[in-house]
Amino acid sequence: MTLVQRWLDAGELDLPLPGSGQTLVRWDKLASLCEIDVVAGRLAEAHTDAVAILAELGGPPVVPGRLWGVWAAESPDASVEVHDRGDLVTLSGTKAWCSGAGLCADALVTARTVTGSRGLYAVDLHGPGVEPLPSNWRNAGMAGSDTRSVRFTAAPAIPVGGPDDYLTRPGFWHGAAGVAACWLGAARAVAAPLYRAVAEATEPGNPYAAAHLGALDAALAAAQALLVSTAAQVDTAPPSGCGEVAARRLRAVVEVAVDEAIGRTARALGPGPLALDAAHAGRVADLSMYVRQSHAEKDLAALGALVAR
Q1: Per mean pLDDT, which range of 160-174, 238-252, 265-279 is the poorest?
Q2: By the 8 A CB rule, do 239 and 56 touch?
Q3: How do residues 284-293 score in pLDDT, each as one tens digit?
Q4: CA-CA distances (angstroms) from residue 70 to 55, 105, 175, 227, 298?
Q5: Is the pLDDT of residue 205 over 80?
Q6: What are phi and psi of 154, to 5 degrees?
Q7: Which of 14, 52, 165, 252 has the largest count of CB atoms under 10 Å?
Q8: For the segment 42-78, what is each residue's pLDDT rounded down to a tens digit?
Q9: Beta bridge partners of 110
Q10: Dihedral through CA 152, CA 157, CA 163, CA 169, nearest 10?
């Protein structure tokens, strides 16, 4: 049994919904799970995001013990189309970047309708017409997330919300901010060896380690402070309020903290932990891949355009 499945069965993923008044509780829990294990935490975030989406858009009930994924990535060489025949809705095509392809029991899948809109559909992954394809993943980072393409062949599906609701709902940006919480928790785990090294230093063999830690700690503290204020904003905003600016700011600030954690820990401690500490090396590889869900300068440009208005 995978770690994320154990968390699910133990009720660790029963989190408050975004905007419920306990958004910080939700995000702090996601951060703590990623601090324990980056891959399992990333899969946990997807499951809790699916639960929130289903609640927001009036989807089917979540069956206890069944792990959900959210497969919404769009690829120019892989697409899924909807076939609606009244009482029967099916999906056909190939969806790329499906995390938990062989681990999840259910997934929310985006697909194109005949009108060209983007719909969202709940699919039983143990049902007919669902085939995870062989993995072509070549990076050690996030390898345990089982991210690969999935082929759908007339797979039965349940519509969730209306056309384009997945992207236009207020909760889309709440979910985007939740991912930043996961990055922050993983960054803390990557930074832990540097905290220990400075605390345990008995002589000034590396006089710069404390300076690296000071800069890193400031970045982590800034990210946590913005996480707290963003959670409060989500809880007090009107239901129709769009939190795009807040979510993009949070993701940008947390990404800086991630870069500081990876870079300064390596510069302060040298190659030893990366070469000899398997747990640390794995966290660095996982977080380096996970944070690439950010679109880097493209996301910063989008934030800049929004705040300049």
Answers
A1: 238-252
A2: no
A3: 999 999 999 9
A4: 14, 11, 11, 23, 23
A5: no
A6: 50, 45
A7: 52
A8: 999 999 999 999 999 999 999 999 999 999 999 888 8
A9: 120
A10: -100
- Beta bridge pairs of residue 109: 71, 121
Q: Tokens 């007090």 label which residue?
A: 236
Q: Are the C-beta atoms of 191 and 143 separated by less than 8 Å?
A: no
Helix axes 23-36, 171-200, angle to 10 degrees: 50
Is pLDDT at 294 greater than 80 in this prediction? Answer: yes
Rounded distance between C-alpha atoms, residue 233 and residue 219, angstroms? 21
Span 233-248, average pLDDT: 85
Q: No. of H helices and E strands in the chain?
A: 10, 8
Return the structure tokens found at 168.
Answer: 């236009």
Angle at 175 between CA 62 and CA 184, to 5 degrees: 115
Q: How many CB atoms lie within 10 A of CB 276?
A: 9
Is the model's pLDDT at 199 over the cut of 70? yes
Q: 3-class DSSP state for residue 161?
A: coil
Q: Which residues, at least 6 apart from 182, have a Cβ–Cβ distance to it below 8 Å?
A: 30, 31, 33, 34, 41, 42, 45, 290
CA–CA distances in Å: residue 216 to residues 108, 192, 244, 258, 260:
37, 11, 26, 9, 6
Instruction: Say whether pLDDT at 102 is over 70.
Output: yes
Q: Is 169 helix (H, G, I), strand (E, B) or coil?
A: coil
188 by Cβ neighbours in 10 Å (0-12 / 13-18 / 19+) ranks as: buried
Instruction: Using the CB atoms, write b or e for 47-65: b if 16+ within 10 Å.
Output: bbbbbbbbebbebeeeeee
Nearest CA among 109, 107, 138 for reference residue 124? 107
Which range (47-51, 187-191, 242-246) has the least confidence?
242-246
Is the overall model pTM greater than 0.90, yes or no? yes
